[in-house]
Amino acid sequence: xxxxxxxxxxxxxxxxxxxxxxxxxxxxxxxxxxxxxxxxxxxxxxxxxxxxxxxxxxxxxxxxxxxxxxxxxxxxxxxxxxxxxxxxxxxxxxxxxxxxxxxxxxxxxxxxxxxxxxxxxxxxxxxxxxxxxxxxxxxxxxxxxxxxxxxxxxxxxxxxxxxxxxxxxxxxxxxxxxxxxxxxxxxxxxxxxxx
Length: 195
Description:
The protein is mainly beta. It has one helix spanning about 5-30, and strands spanning about 40, 50-55, 70-75, 80, 95, 100-110, 115-125, 125-130, 135, 155, 165-175, 180-190. Helices cover about 15% and strands about 35% of the residues.
């Protein structure tokens, strides 16, 4: 065996094997791959439970055990049907929401086992606070100025808040005058099974 062969067999081969083993080992401890995003609630979804209330009213509506039997049922988008903003028209606004009020909406989501990476996308005029299973995932009321546009906000939901089966999405939207608008989209991924 010449010097080059000895170098390859004693140095390069063990280093290559260690690299391959460490790569395979790290793959085994990494998170399982996820599927492409699936839309759970599309923009323009039907059958939200909702209630229009004075600003800051309706405390506790985000809790899963809250009695929403007095809420009406409506379809998104919620808002003003006329105005200077693109989404404020009879085609995009299916449920009226009066100015200078809060809009409370609730919708249940059915999530299968292995659900991960849930994201709530919000289109709003003006402000919004988003809860999943009673937990604030938006870090308080988020302020939005100007006309609503798709995906004004996106809020990632920690996997630890998700349950197999029924989950509750609850949203407080606030209008500060002029025009109103709220619509939501929720996406999820599923962990892929290996092997």
